[in-house]
Design goal:
The chain is 43% helix and 14% strand. It contains 7 helices and 5 strands, in the order βαβααβαβαβαα. The longest helix is centred in the C-terminal third of the chain and has 18 residues. The termini are far apart. The relative contact order is 0.14. Pfam families: Response_reg (PF00072).
Length: 162
C-alpha cells in the first residue's frame, strides 16, 4: 500500500476502531475515515456515492466492517449493499467481529467479504493480525489469496455441509 491508500473503518465500538488505527502505519492515518454506526456510514458515505463523487474524491482501497453494529444492525446488510453498488463492489472488505461462529464466518464470505478477522480477547493479537494483512496487501499490491482469512474460507468451502 502506498501513502495514498484510503481506508474506511465502520465499527460502533471506539476501542475497536482504535485497535484498527493502531495497526495502520502512521502515514495512513490521514487517509483513514471512521464511521461509528450503520446510519453514520450510510448518511456520510453510501448515500453520497456516485461516479461524479468518486471522480472528485478518493476511492476507498480497503474497508474494515464490524459484523454487528449498534442496535443489532448487521454489517452483512452493509456488505450486501456494497457488493450490489456498481461503484463500490470492487472494494476489499475485511469483516471484523468478536464472533468466531461458523455461521457468521460463512455468512460474511458468502456475501462477499474478502477476509474475516476475529477480534478475540487479546488486543495485541488482533492488531498484529491487521498489520500482517496490510503487509501482505502491500507486498502483493492487492488482496492476496494466502492471507489468513482466505485460508479460513478454503477450510469452510471444503465443508460438505455448504
Amino acid at each position: 500500500m502506498n501513502s495514498q491508500t484510503y481506508i474506511i473503518v465502520v465499527d460502533d465500538n471506539p476501542d475497536d476502531r482504535d485497535l484498527v488505527k493502531r495497526a495502520l502505519p502512521k502515514r495512513h492515518t490521514s487517509k483513514l475515515r471512521e464511521f461509528d454506526s450503520e446510519g453514520d456510514f450510510r448518511e456520510r458515505f453510501l448515500d453520497e456515492i456516485s461516479e461524479e463523487y468518486l471522480t472528485e474524491h478518493n476511492f476507498p482501497h480497503l474497508l474494515f466492517l464490524d459484523l454487528r453494529l449498534e442496535h443489532n444492525k448487521s454489517g452483512i446488510e452493509i456488505l450486501k449493499e456494497i457488493r450490489s453498488n456498481q461503484y463500490l463492489k470492487s472494494i476489499p472488505v475485511i469483516m471484523i467481529s468478536s464472533s468466531d461462529k461458523d455461521d457468521d464466518v460463512m455468512d460474511a464470505f458468502l456475501n462477499g467479504a474478502n477476509l474475516y478477522v476475529v477480534k478475540g480477547e487479546d488486543d495485541k493479537v488482533f492488531t498484529r493480525t491487521i498489520k500482517e494483512i496490510l503487509r501482505s496487501i502491500n507486498r502483493a499490491g492487492k488482496m492476496p489469496s494466502d492471507v489468513p482469512g482466505n485460508l479460513i474460507l478454503e477450510k469452510y468451502s471444503n465443508n460438505e455441509n455448504i
